[in-house]
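Data availability (excerpt). The following record was deposited with the supplementary files.
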Amino acid sequence: MTALVPVAHLAHLNVATLRHPLDDPRTAPFVALLDSVNASADAAPGFVWRLVEEGEADATGLRPAGENVIVTLSVWESPQALWDFTYRSGHLAAMQRRREWFERPLEAHLVLWWVPAGHRPSAEEALRRLTDLRTHGPSPRAFTFTASFTAAEAAQHPEVARTQQSERVRLMKREDRPAAGAADTGALTTGIAMP
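Predicted structure:
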């Protein structure tokens, strides 16, 4: 019996504006939790990938959304897998303290969208989805937990379907390349992927 391979995974971006710099003592409890929360995510059922800064264990040094804004960008097998990690794991205890470390968001700070299995979204792609959500509200292209869309619904959206088809073609071209060794910059990695 052959296992079914998912054709879509759920991408997730969360942005948070720091109250104080990461090296400030008031932010130290948050920084102390990073390794354990990230390890929990990496081991969570349904986890696929998360953005990390090259040579680092997390993405807190990357600031694609602004100097005081940290981003969490990850890919999951399903909305349920992300929900379970977010609200039914040790991550919840850190979230309950978020107001100590982060400003209260005045607009959408979390966006979800479907990507082809194997795709690793860039920070720029993720920020475009967040802008789409903020500008147009939830749609099959950019949504939230409370206003969500299935992968099938997203595939029916003309722009989403076009984007997913382009990404599938790009991934197939990568798979058809002869092996170029470890220095092949076209290979998918679990680190930062900025096309």
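Summary of structural features: Confidence is low (pLDDT under 50) at residues 177-195.
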